[in-house]
Amino acid sequence: MPVSLISDLYSEVILEHYKQPHNRHELPDATLKEQGYNESCGDDIVVYAKVIDDKIADVTFTGRGCAISQSSASMMTDVLQGKTVAEAEHLIEEFKKMITGEKEFPEEGEFEELAALKGVIKLPIRVKCATLAWNTLRLGLEKSELK
User: Quick check: 44 pLDDT over 60?
Assistant: First the structure.
């Protein structure tokens, strides 16, 4: 793997979130709990959310996996705290467009830190790692809306 590709993929921001993830713990009073698994590499994650009055009051995760999946989960929890369910669903879709190269990562705003993951675009197999937590939360939100 070329050195520049490795440095793009494992930037300082990614490694910081991997070594010291934000919001990595169970959420005992969660109203949503969903498990996600990436069969291609074995990443395993559980996303917890406390949704109150259509707002994500808290979102956390547990699990194990590569630096990409774990740091993406950490960053996701930062971005989605306090958002409405509709805002969260929109941001999940926007992130998926960015991580697949369909849309550019912005240089500022909510997705600024997530731009550290843009090296994943060059390695499509790693897109599943980066989107695991996001897809898991989306699935949990869809299931909770069906109730």
Answer: yes
Dihedrals φ, ψ of 90, to 5°?
-65, -45
Provide φ and ψ at 35, rounded to 5°: -105, 140
Q: Are 82 and 127 in contact (CB under 8 A)?
A: no
Q: How many domains does the chain have?
A: 1
| Residue 33 main-chain phi, psi, to 5 deg | -140, 120
59-88 tens-digit pLDDT: 999 999 999 999 999 999 999 999 999 999
With contact defined as beta carbons under 8 Å apart, do 45 and 35 qualify?
A: yes
- The parent domain of residue 20 ranges over 3-144
Partners of 35 in the β-ladder: 46
Cα–Cα distance between 131 and 133 in angstroms, integer?
6
CB count, 10 Å around CB of 58?
18
What CATH number has the domain bearing residue 95? 3.90.1010.10
